[in-house]
Amino acid sequence: MTIAYGISGWLYAAWAIEIINQGKLFYWILENNIITVILYGLGICFILLIALAFTAPVAFLTTGMAKWFRTDFGAFMSIILGAMAFALIVQRLDFFSRIFVLLSSAMLVRIELRIIGIKTWISSLIIGCLCLLGFCIGIIAYTIYFV
């Protein structure tokens, strides 16, 4: 799992350094230090979102969706949003394949931790720490090697 997140950190660092060298973020002209903090902060938040939100218990995720599917409008909007999401995933398959690899590695580690009897919140904490560790190692390795 740490290797997958390390490779993700490597690729993210390559992209982030390219953006930092341009000096523009969201068409704002900012100092390089501010751009660096924003980009790496967003990357860390994204990694934590992947690691923790998608490894949450299934009952937690299905609670809000049960009310949504009971109405006709909710079912209709789910079909429309699902079709749009599918089209977006097919169009940007290279990007989403990376996300799916990260999700699958976090889910497999969660399954293994649950099999050996570790509680849900402790396993989420372990997964979050391992994901951040791998991501930061990838960023540091890229920075040492290329910068």
| Count of helix runs | 6
Described by strand count, sense and barrel closure, the largest sheet is: 2 strands, antiparallel
What is the N-to-C succession of helices and strands? HEEHHHHH
Question: How does the helix and strand content classify structurally?
Answer: mainly alpha
Poorly predicted ranges (pLDDT <50, ≥5 residues)?
A: none
Total individual domains: 1
How many angstroms does the end-to-end distance come to? 26 Å
Shape: globular
Rg (C-alpha, Å):
18 Å
Give your account of this protein's structure.
This protein has helices at residues 2-22, 32-53, 58-70, 72-91, 93-115, 120-146; strands at 24-25, 28-29. It is mainly α. It has one domain. It has a two-stranded antiparallel sheet with strand order 1-2. A hairpin with a 2-residue loop joins strand 1 and strand 2 (28-29). The longest helix has 27 residues, at 120-146. It starts with a helix and ends with a helix. 18% of the residues are buried.
Question: How would you summarize the topology of this molecule?
Answer:
Layout: H1 2-22, E1 24-25, E2 28-29, H2 32-53, H3 58-70, H4 72-91, H5 93-115, H6 120-146
Antiparallel strand pairs: 1-2
Short note summarizing the structure:
The chain is mostly helical. The chain has 6 helices and 2 strands, in the order αββααααα. It has one domain (2-146).
Looking at this protein, list some descriptive labels.
86% helix, 147 residues, mainly alpha, globular, 6 helices, two-stranded antiparallel sheet
